[in-house]
Each structure stands twice: as C-alpha cells, then as structure tokens.
Amino acid sequence: MPRNALIFDLFNTLVPGADAERDRVLERMAEVVGVDAAAFVRAHHETWSDRLVRWDAAETVRILAGRLGARPTPAEVDHAVRLRRDLGAELLANVTPPTLAALDALRARGHRLALCSNTTAETADLWPASPLATRFAAAAFSPQVRAAKPDPLIYHAAADALGVRPDRCWFVGDGADGELAGAAAVGMAVIRTTEFQDTDPTWPGEPIAAISELVDRLR
Ligand SMILES: [Mg+2]
C-alpha cells in the first residue's frame, strides 16, 4: 500500500524557527515584568520541556518572573504575553508562496496532511489564522497532546487524526528534538529538510532543500 499521508514538523520545516527574534522578544518581555533580560532568556530556554507540554504563556511569564524575584501585575503579564503572541502570529504568517503551492500540489494529488509540532500553547491558539491551517486536515500540538517529539504519542496522535496507521505516513522535518528517529521508530518514512537549518546532518539519506522539492520526491 502506498504511503499517502504526510506529517509535517512546523518550525524550521514550514516556517523559519526565528531563534534570534524569539530571544529579542524575550528580552522585551523581561523588561515589561522587571527582571534581568539575560536571566529571563536563560530561564526560558532551560524550561522548554515544561513549556512544550504544561505551561501556557501567562503561566510561563509568572513562573519565570517569580523565580527571578519579581511579582508582575496581571497587566504586566498580559503585556508580556501579547509580545509573545504577536511574534507567534508573525511567524505563522511567514509562509513562502512556493511552500503553499507545494502543499496545494500534494493535496491535489490526494495526499493528506497533518502537522506534528513541539511548540508552546500560544502557537496552537494562533494556528487557525495561519495560511497553513486550511491546507492541513489535522494538527497535533505538544501542549494539547501533552507529549512532545520524540514521544511516540504525538506521532500517533497526528496519524490517528488522519485515520491512518503511522506506517502509511511520511514524516517531514528538520530534525530538532530527535524527531526524525522518533518518526522512524513508529514506522514513518522520514524526509529531512534543510530549507531553514541543517539541524540533524548525520541523518542518512538525501535531504530536500525546500518543501517544493517534495512534489517531485514523492511522485
Ligand atoms: Mg523543527
């Protein structure tokens, strides 16, 4: 039986990961809640596993500011969360026309698409407004599934949402968080992309340099 379903990673696969912009926004958030910017950025990076599956954006601001000795007002927390959400919305809107055209071509050929993303809660909230959302039949976000790649649960959640077995799926991603090995472990065929970042260079096989190359690769 052919593999007909495609499961995509989001950041550094469909849109840029924008790590530098994220840190700049974190520094502005630190200023809003009155804590040291470098310490706030560091605390943020150190708590990624909590942020992926447990804390929402407001909790994250309150908990990290608290750990750094501040007690921000609700208005300050709201302001900081707004900065984070504005960046998230911008990142999700930043899809190139060739990527959208490739997704449309794959769908026209009968492929069904699902997203499988390690991300924080606000990305899941903002997803429906992204030009990507209408192309995807399903999306599995780590805060909603309460599991993050490479945990088999989140891959199964994406495949189940399409009503297919994982061994009928391709997984397309840059390779962060060990996601390629995780996908292979549940039976998905893996395609690595280097469009935005060469994250997992030792992964075997020829990567694609752009999502648009998928159209030929899967023909
Ligand atoms: Mg990624």
TrEMBL record:
Record keyword Hydrolase present: yes
InterPro entries per UniProt: HAD-like_sf, HAD-SF_hydro_IA, HAD_sf, S-2-haloacid_dehalogenase
SUPFAM superfamilies reported in the protein's UniProt record: HAD-like
The keyword Ribosomal protein is assigned to this record: no
The organism's place on the tree of life at top rank: Bacteria
Keywords: Hydrolase
Pfam family, one: Hydrolase
PANTHER family tied to this protein: HALOACID DEHALOGENASE, TYPE II (AFU_ORTHOLOGUE AFUA_2G07750)-RELATED (PTHR43316:SF3), HYDROLASE, HALOACID DELAHOGENASE-RELATED (PTHR43316)
Name the UniProt record assigns to this protein: Hydrolase of the HAD superfamily
Organism lineage string: Bacteria, Bacillati, Actinomycetota, Actinomycetes, Micromonosporales
